[in-house]
Amino acid sequence: FSLDKTDCGILSSILAILVTFILAKGKIFGTGNKEDVSASSKSRNIVEVIEECDKKAVVIYASQTGTAEDYATKFGREFQSRFQLSTLVADSDDYDLDNLNEIPEDVLVFFFISSYGEGELPDSATEFNEYLDTIDEGDLQNLNYTIFGLGNSTYEFYNGAAKKVDKDLIKAGATKFVPYGDGDDGAGTLDEDFLAWKEKTFETLKNTLSLKEVEAKYQPAVSVVESAELFSSSDDVFLGEHHRAYLVEDHAKLNLGPFDHSFPYLAPVTKSKELFISQTRHCIHAEFDLSGSNLKYSTGDHLAILPPNSNEEVDNFLKAFGLLEKRNQVVVIKPLDTTSSHSFPSPTTFDSIARYYLEITGAVSRQFLGSISEFAPSQQVKDLATKLSKDKDLFHKEITSKKFNISDALLYLSQDAPWTTVPNSFIVDSVPNLQPRFYSISSSSISEKTTIHVTAVVEAETAPTADKKYVTGVTTNLLHSLEVNQNAKNDQLYATYDLDGPRGKFSATKLPVFVRRSNFKLPTNPALPIILVGPGTGVAPLRGFVRERVAMAKMGTKIGKVILFFGSRRSDEDYLYKEEWVEYAKILGENFEIVTAFSRETSEKVYVQHKMLEKSKELVELIDQKAFIYVCGDASNMARSVQGALATVLSKEKGITEDAAAETLRKYKSINRYQEDVW
Ligand code: FAD
Fold first, then answer.
1. Which of 215, 533, 572, 654 is deepest in the core (most CB within 10 A)?
2. Percentage, residues of the chain above pLDDT 70
3. Mutate to test the pocket of ligand 1, among 120, 439, 443, 483 (most ligand atoms within 8 A of CB)
4. Which residues touch 431 (CB under 8 Å, ≥6 apart)?
5. Distance between CA atoms of residues 456 and 488, nearest Å
6. Please, which pLDDT band fits residue 42 given cuts at 50, 70 and 90?
7. Are 372 and 385 in contact (CB under 8 A)?
8. How many angstroms separate the Cα of 180 from the Cα of each of 69, 310, 399, 421?
9. Side-chain half-sphere exposure of 558, counting CA atoms within 13 A
10. Are 307 and 434 a contacting pair, CB within 8 Å?
């Protein structure tokens, strides 16, 4: 994070020019909020921006959780640096993309498209998708493009969104200058898939388009300047607040919303409890109170939680960059190019950047190590980092298999010496932004109108390294820490957090949240039967469904049968909401049945899909009565096994082939009679 005098001199000159330019256009920096920056500095006409800023390449991304944005940004920066071609990185949500054919023919267009749900484009690309549906043959014959798709092969419609965009563009006559690439998060190879595709793409561009390559050198997209005037106690310094309204305590706005990623609602967690009976495994039930706000949800939606990083990881990160002593230093962050933006508030401090704004944990990538190696603290460390970044197998052996995050890897390579020569801007540019985590809401908006429940299993394991460090999930350990604190317990924690938050604003147990709408919805007719399959925390939204039917039964509404398949390891360890189901059965009577599968109580492992086969006759009777089917939980194996079991059930009871049964299930999916909420 340090800048030498020359860097500072260059940066101040650039800044002076920039500030003059920006002021001249009446633009205001300062909130650091992506929306503010993009709204003020960009036209929505992408062709206009390309021409005005003389861009030679465009990287357009459609991102649901921030991953496609991260890859697109990394790619855009490296492309610009290696080929010296000015590159625009653009969120599909920020532009009207209905004039792609007017992009100058010599401008290369790269799409980074994430798939979501049933192979759909992210919400942010809805307008782009609608436009694609209207284009005809020949409409895009000037467009030169390629696509990298980010998906998960455990889902049925693997990379469905990227494939759809590719198909539409080909149909419209666009030219693909290098082959399409698939990145697979399901197989855990997204990073390697991206690197392989990127290298092939660069090779092809060099060979076919004769692009000249220079050695990639880091070029900052932002300036990060240490302030001598501002202090962490200054009123307009962001210490972890996600939005200016929290700084100025604009109470009307704070309760009114609309709430999203850059403006979350600070919701009180009124109740939390441990759901497992175990010394080593934990699952937290937490209740968020919305009553003071305008925030609404409907049963089946997702709650997004914006977590801070743990104290241990913040310290480790600051140590790796030699910033422990300077953690409260205020920095001012500004984009160096009017077409780029950075997505968190400024001015802020190094501590707040590490704690609230950057994704400092998670596996470090080979690409990251490669790009940071130029700033290694010594030639020896630089050589080692470069070697590892170029050797996939060695990188896996030395870094990934040890479950190192960024700071673990840097300190391991430098034998604990801090990387003080890394520019401040590199950290802000290259470490991804901290993303919200999503939870399927486990309450019902009919029975709990102003309270949202979530059910989260705590992610923690020990690293296979000599120090046996805990490798922890950010949000679930935050919830664990909050639960232990709220209930005054003294359980062992795998990570600790500043639960009071910036300026004590999270005290009395509040967390920043927002709601994401989902399509996982009960049938509008409550008299229809429902088949629910949710092992582990997959039961979360299904609990919401059952609570909804209980509330309706209490109001005298006629309710259809509910059959719930739940599975876990043991009935006395992780049987979620065990006591509640008994209470629901008392109200719903014969209309409620829970079928359990405890995999570690029998010699042969029994899972929910096995129990479904045993209940085949009853399931088909319900399907004949127009039952809706809901499956929630693990996307990698469970959802597919359950679909297979349902096909077997239909085939057996109806006397049809498994293929015909599978086709019937596909049809149910297309009309929303078979819905999945899997992750
Ligand atoms: P993260 O910080 O995201 O870490 C993810 C994993 O990586 C953890 O296991 C962590 O231990 C591991 N890790 C950390 N560092 C490293 C490293 N250096 N190397 C290797 N591994 C590392 N979950 C629920 O429990 N309940 C729900 O109801 C639920 N609903 C969901 C609904 C949707 C639509 C989606 C998309 C997900 C849902 N999830 C749910 C999953 C949830 O969003 C989180 O992914 C999960 O809780 C882990 O979040 P975390 O912040 O604790 O872990």
1. 533
2. 94
3. 439
4. 358, 359, 360, 368, 406
5. 20
6. low
7. yes
8. 18, 39, 29, 37
9. 3
10. yes
Would strands 283-289 and 470-472 be described as parallel, antiparallel, or unpaired? unpaired
Q: Which residues pair with 562 in a beta bridge?
A: 530, 592
Query: CB within 6 Å of ligand 1 — which residues?
Result: 302, 361-363, 403-405, 437-440, 455-457, 459, 471-476, 537, 540, 679
The two tokens of residue 275 are: 């759901």
Structure-block tokens of residue 99 = 């004039």
CA dist., res. 341 & res. 38, Å (int): 7
CA of 374 to the centre of ligand 1 (A): 32
**Whether 596 contacts 590, CB under 8 Å:** no
Residue closest to 538 by CA, chosen among 605, 607, 634: 634
Q: Which two tokens stand for residue 64?
A: 């649901």
**Contacts for 518-521: CB closer than 8 Å, 24+ residues apart:** 518/300, 518/301, 518/302, 518/440, 518/677, 519/117, 519/300, 519/672, 519/675, 520/300, 520/440, 520/630, 520/632, 520/675, 520/676, 520/677, 521/298, 521/299, 521/300, 521/672, 521/675
**What is the CA(67)–ligand 1 centre distance, in A?**
14
Mention every residue, 6+ apart, whose C-beta is less than 8 A from residue 47: 99, 102, 103
Rounded to whole angstroms, how far apart are CA atoms 182 and 221?
27
Count of C-beta atoms within a 10 Å radius of residue 604: 6
Reference 201, options 110, 114, 113, 107; nearest CA is 110
| Two tokens, residue 46 | 């992408």
Q: pLDDT tens digit string along 263-315?
A: 999 999 999 999 999 999 999 999 999 998 999 999 999 999 999 999 999 99
CA distance 243 to 32: 9
Burial of residue 20 (number of CB atoms within 10 Å: 0-12, 13-18, 19+): exposed
**Ligand 1 atom 8: the closest Cα is on which residue?**
473
> How many C-beta atoms lie closer than 10 Å to residue 415's C-beta?
10
DSSP states of 495-554? S---TT-GGGTTTTTEEEEEEE--S----S-TTS-EEEE--GGGGHHHHHHHHHHHHHHH
How far apart CA 631 and CA 679 sit, in angstroms, is: 11
From the CA of 477, give the closest atom in ligand 1. 52
User: Which is it for the CA torsion 412, 415, 417, 422, positive or negative?
Assistant: negative
* pLDDT tens digits for range 259-273: 999 999 999 999 999
Q: CA-CA distance, 287 to 509, in Å (whole number)?
A: 11
Q: In this structure, which residue's CA is closest to atom 39 in ligand 1?
A: 439
Both tokens of 594, joined, read: 């829970």
d(CA 219, CA 78): 9
For residue 411, the surrounding DSSP H or E stretch is: helix 406-413
